[in-house]
Amino acid sequence: MPGRSAATSWPEPQQIRDIQQGEKPGSEGFPRGALGLPIVFHFKDRGEPPDHTLNGKDPHGRMASPVILRPFAISKEQALPLVMVLNAPTGDLYLHGGETPVEVGFGHRKAIQELIGRAQDRWNATPVRI
User: Where are the domains of the chain?
Assistant: First the structure.
């Protein structure tokens, strides 16, 4: 369908479509919830669901991203990419935007690990765990 995400992309939009059709949340879940909340999902095409927000039980709450991306200066002329992941508690996820909030899960994909893996590939880097 026009405007739809590629099959290899994130599962959240299709999960929202399925929930709107009355299906239970699938096992694919909402993995990007681990990267910070809230996340607003906006569908622009005709016949698509209205806007939904992924958040905790409180629809107005916030969770800062545990991922910090920064250039790390090693000299006046040179910097290295830095990806720092903080330990952060993960709570329950809810999808807000329908009649009642729907409790959803993160799913089996690990968004933070995928981000680290892509950074390693992109920058040919080795992770340092502290």
Answer: 12-123
β-strand pairing of 102-104 with 93-96: antiparallel
Written as one letter, the residue type at 89 is P
- pLDDT of 41 reads 96
Q: Which stretches of 58-108 are assigned E, i.e. beta strand?
A: 67-73, 79-85, 93-96, 102-104
- Residues forming a β-bridge with 67: 85
The model's pTM is: 0.84
Q: What does the alpha-carbon distance between residue 55 and residue 76 come to, in Å, rounded to a whole number?
A: 41
Chain-centroid distance, C-alpha 70: 19
Q: Is the dihedral of CA 83, 86, 90, 93 positive or negative?
A: negative
